[in-house]
Here is the input.
Amino acid sequence: MKSPETDGSRAKVLAAALRTWTTVDNDTEPPVARLEIRYPPHWAFTSTNNITARQQGRLLAFLRDDLAENRPGHSTPERAAAIIHGLINERAAAGRTRITTADLAEAAPRIGRSRTWIAAYITDLIDAGQLHETRRPDAFRIN
Here is the structure.
């Protein structure tokens, strides 16, 4: 079974949300742009949704804010720690009992701290008993 990261299910959810948002938001202004919706795994064209200037401005502002907030170096240690705890909790809620350095490396742009900082923080979590080292290198059991 493929994970949500590789099967495209997250992209499908985003596409559905954008399609719903553009059709439910009854803006009477003329369209100024189009969103092309494509679905994985082959990214085949599904539909086109017209968006108005107001919708386009809102979407671009959201993306700009998200990109600015998640750029490397912008994150505080507290925010980075909260993201790591969120990743651990997300995996635990999904029934996964382990987290790997690969999971954390994949999330490094969101964490916004260096790999050295992340490694030191994982060591702190091990020392605090929140994670345990396993026999497999770079894998940690979630408590």
